Amino acid sequence: MSLRAEVTTGIAGLAGPARALIGLAAVGLGVTLVLAPLSTHQIAVVTGIGLALAGVAALLLPTADRFTRFSARILGGIGIALGVLIAVWPSAGAPWLAFVVGAALIGQGLFQGIQSIRNGGDQRVTNIIGALASVIIGVVTFSWPVLTLTFFRLGVGAWFVFFGLQLVMLALTHRTDSVLRAPRPRSRLRRWSRTIGASLALVLAVGLALGTGAILGGVPLPEPGTFYAAPAEVPSEPGQLLRSEPLTEGVPHGAQAWKILYTTTHSDGSPAISSGTLLAPRDRGADALPLLSVAHGTTGVAAKCAPSLSATPFADGAGAALEQMVTRHGFAAVTSDYVGLGTSGTHPYLIGDAEARNVLDAARAVQQFSELSTPTDTVVWGHSQGGQGSLWTGQIAESYAPELTVVGIAAFAPAADLYGLAEVNKNDAPGKTVSAYIAATWNTLYPELELQSQLTPGSAGPVTKIQNLCFNGKDVLAAILRGTQVPNQIFPDSLLAGKFGHLLKEQTPVGPFPAPVLVAQGLSDPLVKPAQQRAWVAGRCAAGEEIDYRTFPGLDHLSLVAADSPLTPQLVEWTLDRWAGTPATPNCAALPK
């Protein structure tokens, strides 16, 4: 026997055990895909390993036909290459797996439809119906990549198990033949069953497509009208009231409201225009009304997301407490929309200094409103994004608007540690939605970062879609669902470790604060983590700030500020105390070490 023949015989002898080992590995991977709680990255890794093993198995399959052997080698090489690429680069592999599933469904549907039209037969209509269903479902999968991966893992997992068992049986029996059976004639019942099944699949596919469009498309919201446009003559001084008009929608009983337009500045000092709302008791005398300045929470980053355009303009944050302060205790409340919401320009989302300027200038503009009188003292409130904004408002008030006196600062679940939030929430749906808002706005505000070109694979498209959805009203569902379908975290870790991460850290309010500070935190908050909030509070206490830190077991990010929250009466009492000059009750000394 020649040396070449001996080598070939030796390799052939090893092929059987190798196929058995690969088969057992494939079964294990399949069981893992079906049963284990895997993340999208882990699905990609396991699938990549399985594809690589399938490629190796294709190279080892015994076949005497030259064409089949050549095809097996080509497919085996492709399987190994794709599998290795997906396994070692799961962040790119996860979006591509979802894309491949959708493309495969569309391709299969088109091929089936063309074949049915060309070949005819008694099942032509049935096949065409099934082909249409396949194409439509394939298109729908592009809107639900993570959900597609969930179903994909089940199908691929089952295939890995079946494929692995086949390899093991092949190794044990050494069978290389295939049995060709003559097709059995289809019965009439079987043909009708296929037609009914294909029709039901088409109905389901159309329903999925329509439902997807309705859910992910959001709800049409009013676009800003002429009220929000800049007048021909704009004063250069910030805090100047430009115009106002009555607001009637969503106004609490016993209150009167207006929309306002006023001048402000960007964080770099350049002039800007912002809109906002003003709420006051309907029954009021000539005396000055105590002033409450509200920094609102996340409503989105598109112009149509301004609270003053919403059907419920005063529901944000502690809306029930706000209504009580106005209708029962005679306060006036001014809320800035922030630049870019309602008015033109890019919304400075979670840019603390910019939000604070907008809030302070709204309080300045109210001083010029002829229908009521307010003092230059104010208490500042804010929830979530607005919590960060209220803390920043207190931090810069003395330097930016020295004529105003902040007598109290209340922040509910504030986004105080923005870098920490980006770090711990990067894989959560709400965190991805917030990250998409940051990516969309900071890409314009900080062009040197080139954020759009540095997002993780599969993130750029969802960012574009999410930035046009508001985070208030019925749009919230669409924004969150879009967030759930981003396969990766929006920002790569390398970006968080660089200049972008440094800018996130710069948004942390550190004081000094000119007035007592109340920080409220729900201990079941999945977005602003209690441990992070406590660490921020501990840091400010160590720096000498007077913080009244109140925690609420069982309350999350939204229930903390709900009408029935225990925070509601506490916030009302705390605000009245600040206005009355009652000494504050900081509790830094009571924080556990």
UniProtKB/TrEMBL annotation:
The keyword Transmembrane helix applies. The chain crosses the membrane at residues 20-38, 44-63, 70-89, 95-113, 125-144, 156-174, 195-216. It comes from Leucobacter chromiireducens subsp. solipictus. This is Lipase. SUPFAM superfamilies: alpha/beta-Hydrolases (SSF53474). Pfam families: DUF308, LIP. Keywords: Membrane, Transmembrane, Transmembrane helix. Signal peptide: none annotated.
